[in-house]
Amino acid sequence: MSELNSQSLGKVGVLFGGRSAERDVSVMSGNGVLAALKSKGVDAYAFDPAERSIAELAAEKFDRVFIALHGRYGEDGSLQGVLEQLNIPYTGSGVMASAIAMDKIFTKRIWQTHGLSTPKYAVLTPQTQLRTVPDDLGLPLIIKPPHEGSTIGISKVRGYSEMSEAYALAAQFDDVVLAEEFIEGRELTVAVLGQGEQAYALPIIEIVAPDGNYDYQNKYFTDDTRYLCPASLDPVLTQQIQEMAVDAYRALDCEGWARLDVLLRKSDNRPFLLEINTSPGMTGHSLVPMAAKATGMSYEDLCMEILKTARLKIRTEVKSITN
């Protein structure tokens, strides 16, 4: 796809903003992407699905779109389905891969069937006896809504008495809640680009947050978090983690780009997959641009490479079936 130039990409829409809890981050990502594409001579335009209708999206007659939306209605397959219906090529994963990756519970189930390490977990509902969960997963443990990102609605539970409050917080965002074994160790993230057998991992980043708290504030709005890229890891372990990330990406049939969060257990250096983001952040604090920069790829070039992979994922050729 690299032979495409700015003019041949046509009229490009950058979709950002949206209606999810991650709207503010998406606005930052989208503005960055829009400026980068324009600097490369792309005929690019902003489009906020929260402020404009699907009819207006169709009327714009975009030749392709760059999805810089995060969370619900942009990263969960719903928008991808709309774009397939409108016949507008788009960046990132398709309908099914986006929907599955957005659901941390289903993602873990698929990874487990592929033999990929992920922390033990339990699915919590209003009928769950919350006080029994730590008996199975141990303490501390993590409670989170399975369809949110950017650490929204997440709690670290250190005692039985904290279960109810943590569940109530996560339940504000989802009908079911994910309880997850806490893995003590180093926090890593791996960006993956490409599709199928051509998918590859960028350098691993280690995240060192103040007091080990990589929350919403420390992700996007402070400079106190340190990012080590490439992470200081044994070369064999580095390769193992990168291969695991690519395998996890392929297991969900992702394409274009994504970022996988990994915990490296302190006791034995065993990596565990936490989650995957199929429309990662592109802000000044975001990690995919940081990993790309470590390979010599600028933010602007990264945006262009992602944009050039935009395509429709559902085959449109329909053959008639005759008896």
Q: Can you characterise this structure?
A:
- With 323 residues, the chain is of the alpha+beta class.
- The chain has 3 domains: 7-91, Rossmann fold; 100-117 and 184-308, 2-Layer Sandwich (D-amino Acid Aminotransferase, Chain A, domain 1), CATH 3.30.470; 121-181, Dna Ligase, domain 1 (2-Layer Sandwich), CATH 3.30.1490.
- The chain has helices at 23-39, 54-59, 78-86, 95-102, 104-113, 133-137, 163-171, 216-220, 235-251, 287-294, 299-308; strands at 11-15, 43-47, 64-67, 121-124, 141-144, 155-157, 177-181, 185-195, 200-201, 205-208, 226-228, 255-265, 271-277.
- Helix 1 crosses helix 11.
What's the CATH C level of the largest domain?
Alpha Beta
Question: What's the CATH topology name of the largest domain?
Answer: D-amino Acid Aminotransferase, Chain A, domain 1
Low-confidence stretches: none
Beta-strand residue percentage = 15-25%
CATH superfamily of the largest domain: ATP-grasp fold, B domain
Summarize the main sheet: 6 strands, antiparallel
What's the rounded overall pLDDT mean?
92
Whole-Å distance between the termini? 41 Å
Listing every helix as H and every strand as E from the N terminus to the C terminus, the arrangement reads EHEHEHHHEHEEHEEEEHEHEEHH
Roughly what percent helix?
A: 25-40%
- Counting structural domains, the number is 3
Number of helices: 11
**Rg (CA only):** 20 Å
Number of distinct beta strands: 13
- Oligomerization: single chain
Give the overall shape. Answer: globular
